[in-house]
Design brief:
With 102 residues, the protein is α+β, with helices and mostly antiparallel strands. The chain has helices spanning 53-62, 65-71, 79-92; strands at residues 13-18, 24-29, 33-40, 45-52. Residues 1-21 are annotated as: Disordered.
C-alpha cells in the first residue's frame, strides 16, 4: 500500500536526520495517514479512503466529502477518488462556475 493521500496526493518527502555532531543521514518524512470512513450524502453510502489528517480537516471545513470532491482538482485525486467525484457529479449535476464580480 503506497504512502499517499487519496484526496490531496501528499506523499513521503526526503530530508536529513541531523545528529548532535552535525552528521547528516538520509531519512523519509511520511505523511500522517488514517483510514477514514466518509458518508456521501449524494451517493447514499459510506466510502472508505486512506487520507492525511490535513485532508480530513479540509473535508470538514468544506462541508463534507461531496462538497470537497466537487471543488477538488482532478489531477491530485487518486483513481478511486476521481471515480467518486464523477459519480457525485452525475448524481448532483455539475456546479455552475462562479464568476467574480468586477
Amino acid at each position: 500500500m503506497s504512502r499517499r493521500c487519496e484526496l490531496t496526493a501528499k506523499g513521503p518527502q526526503t530530508g536529513h536526520k541531523v545528529s548532535h555532531s552535525n552528521i547528516k543521514t538520509k531519512r523519509r518524512f511520511l505523511p500522517n495517514l488514517a483510514n477514514v470512513t466518509f458518508i456521501s450524502d449524494a451517493l447514499g453510502r459510506n466510502v472508505r479512503l486512506r487520507v492525511s489528517t490535513n485532508a480530513l480537516k479540509s473535508v470538514d471545513h468544506n462541508g463534507g466529502l461531496d462538497a470537497y470532491l466537487l471543488k477538488a482538482k482532478a489531477d491530485v485525486l487518486s483513481p478511486r477518488a476521481l471515480e467518486l467525484k464523477r459519480a457525485i457529479e452525475k448524481k448532483v449535476g455539475k456546479p455552475a462556475p462562479v464568476k467574480k464580480a468586477s
